[in-house]
Amino acid sequence: MIEPAKTAGMAADKPRYLEDFEVGERWVSVPTLVTEDEIVAYGKANDPQKMHTDPEWAKTGPFGGLVASGWQIAALSMRVFVQSGGYGKTPVIGMGIDQLRWRKPVRANDTLTVEREVIEVLRSDSQPDRGTIRTQVSVRNQDGEVVMTLQTLGRVPARPAA
What's the pTM? Predict the structure, then answer.
C-alpha cells in the first residue's frame, strides 16, 4: 500500500533492524477509501456514538452527517503502514502515541493518504540489542486537508551480532 517511489530503503520481505531506519525516511500510502459501511461497523464495534453509527441521526448531530471515529482513523493509519511492509518482517513493539490530534472529521467516501516520517532513532544504553524509533504521522483527505496527526514510539531490535 506504500508507493515504492516515495519509500526510502524498505524491503517488505526482509527483517528491518534499528540500523536500517534513518531520520528523514518517509512512507506515503496509496489513497484509502473510507466507506459508510466501514464507519458504521467500526462505530458499532468500538465507538458506539450515534454520529458514528446512525447516518440519519448524524444529519442532525454536531457534524451535520456521519463521521468516522478518530480511533478508526488512527487504526487505519497503522493498518496501511503495516500492510505496506514498512517494518518489513520485523515486529515493532508499540510503546506509545504522543500528540494525537483529530483535526477534521472524516466522512463516508473520503479518501485518505497516510504519511509517516522517522524523526528519531535511538539505541538503548541499558539494552543495546534494541532501540526505539519515533515517527511523525499525518493523515490527509482527498483535498489535501490534514485530518489527523500523531507521533508513534516503537521498540525495534538491533541487528544481531555476527
Answer: 0.87
- pLDDT tens-place string over residues 50-91: 999 999 999 999 999 999 999 999 999 999 988 887 777 877
Task: Please answer whether residues 105 and 68 qualify as being in contact, where contact means their C-beta atoms are separated by less than 8 angstroms.
Answer: yes
Per CATH, the number for 4-157 is 3.10.129.10
pLDDT for the residue 7 = 46
Query: Of 49, 3, 50, nearest to 26 (Cα)?
Result: 3
C-alpha cell at 101: 490530534
Which residues is 112 bridged to in the sheet?
Answer: 32
- Please tell me which residue, 160 or 139, carries the higher pLDDT value: 139
Helix spans in the chain (H): 36-46, 50-53, 55-58, 70-84
Give the integer Cα–Cα distance in Å for 34 and 54: 16
Q: Quote the cell numbers at residue 151.
A: 507521533
Distance (Å, whole) CA 68 – CA 157: 34
Domain ranges across the chain: 4-157
